[in-house]
Design goal:
Layout lengths: L1 E5 L4 H11 L8 E8 L9 H27 L3 E8 L2 H12 L3 E5 L6 H16 L3 E5 L9 E6 L4 H12 L7 E10 L13 H29 L5 E9 L1 H12 L3 E5 L5 H17 L3 E5 L5
Helix pairs in contact: 3-4, 4-8, 7-8
């Protein structure tokens, strides 16, 4: 697996690096450590500005080198990259350049202007990129099981997320996975009281029951696949608004990681699918893996 770790040298990106170091990736895995020097609108024809830019590049290289040696000590092959430009754009282009399978970024939270700026980088990468993204909030638990919530609607995007989860080197003896499917209640844009016809009410009840059974089949099939990799796999089907129910389940199970698929945000349908993962990433109090199947 080829991973791109985007770092700004903060404690948040250091946590993301330590997160990766704790996972026993195989000898064929590589980590590309990227720092983006933001474009400062300073003409490099002026001596003080030239010295400032030169010092910034030197400091950035020293920082990614320090991360590189930390990965080397952990037995992981690592490379360094320093790019200049808009951070989120350079992260996406850097991932394309090294053919990364997964982008890994730290998460600052959304309070305070400094936190907002870093959070917006992760959001922009999720919104505009075509790669799978792991947003790290904190290290996996050192005691007790790793609790993972896998959200599925039975789509190809969801199954790709499942396969990516199964490919990550989590300890199967100390990992609990819950498969969640949310049956979206918004089958119509109008309240049911405006459909007084009894036949319509019956039809909507039948549709709900059909969707419930479909969701139960989906989680059962997905759980069967996951049990070939993990020992502890449970299932749950709920009715409601997907974003709200996913966030509620994260809180109830005290999830350490939520795994979701996304088709990105191309077209109206894509906006709706992509917006769920973006909303969960913005509000969840745990890490999130948003998996996207590579474009063919």
């Amino acid at each position: 697996m080829r991973l791109l770790l985007a770092t700004d040298g903060s404690e948040y990106s250091l946590t993301a690096a330590k997160y990766l170091m704790r996972l026993p990736f195989g000898a064929d895995s590589e980590v590309f450590i990227l720092h983006v020097l933001k474009d400062y609108l300073i003409p490099d024809t002026i001596d003080p500005a030239r010295d400032f830019i030169k010092a910034g590049k030197k400091a950035a290289q020293a920082m990614v080198d320090e991360f590189k040696w930390s990965f080397a000590d952990a037995g992981v092959r690592a490379h360094t990259l320093v790019r200049e430009g808009e951070p989120w754009r350079e992260i996406i282009e850097g991932a394309e350049e090294v053919k990364a399978d997964l982008i890994v970024v730290g998460h600052r939270g959304m309070t305070g202007i400094e936190s907002f700026l870093m959070g917006s980088v992760a959001s922009q990468v999720l919104r505009h990129g075509h790669h799978s993204v792991l947003v790290v909030r904190e290290l996996p638990p050192s005691e007790g099981p790793m609790r993972i919530l896998y959200c599925t609607n039975g789509s190809q995007a969801s199954m790709y997320a499942r396969d990516m989860l199964m490919g990550l080197p989590f300890d199967v003896r100390d990992t609990e996975v819950k498969v969640l499917s949310v049956v979206d209640m918004e089958m119509t844009s109008l309240p049911e009281k405006y459909y007084p016809d009894e036949e319509i009410a019956l039809m909507m009840a039948e549709l709900r029951e059909h969707n419930r059974k479909t969701a139960e089949t989906i989680v059962s099939d997905e759980a069967a696949e996951l049990r070939s990799r993990f020992l502890e796999v449970s299932m749950k089907v709920v009715f409601g608004v997907p974003e709200s129910e996913i966030l509620k389940e994260i809180e109830e199970m005290k999830a350490d990681l939520v795994v979701m698929g996304s088709k990105g945000i191309k077209g109206i349908k894509g906006v709706l699918l992509g917006s769920i993962s973006l909303s969960v990433a913005r509000h969840a109090d745990c890490g999130i893996l948003v998996a996207r199947e590579p474009e063919r």
